[in-house]
Amino acid sequence: QLRLVESGGGLVQPGGSLRLSCAFSGRSLNDYAVGWFRQAPGKDRELLTCISTFAVITNYLDSVKDRFTISRDDAENTAYLQMNNLKPEDTGIYYCAADWATYCSEEGYESDFTSWGLGTQVTVSS
Fold this sequence. Notes:
The chain is mainly beta. The chain has strands at 3-7, 10-12, 18-25, 33-39, 45-51, 57-59, 68-73, 78-83, 92-99, 115-116, 120-124. Strands 2, 4, 5, 6, 9, 10 and 11 form a 7-stranded mixed β-sheet that branches. It has a 4-stranded antiparallel β-sheet with strand order 1-3-8-7, with no helix packed on it. It starts with a strand and ends with a strand.
């Protein structure tokens, strides 16, 4: 059974950085595309970015694509989200999710992702 656990969230000042981790267990990360989602307070969950099994990155949200970078380390069975120049509007719960597919879809449907972590809270505030 695949299990995903996010870590690395916390409180950070505007302009700061965080690196989120998504640890896979039970199955090999090799077989999955990985996405990072965010749910801001009072808003729907949205897909930020996705990385394929070949490390091809698809970005879905213009407001973060120049500041957030997804990566994967299959040897460590872990995916990452590096977040730089954080803004208060980046506050929310961040989730990683796995899609048992080679590539990330152009549409980025939430339903593509069949396994989810419980999320990690990121708060950007001075």
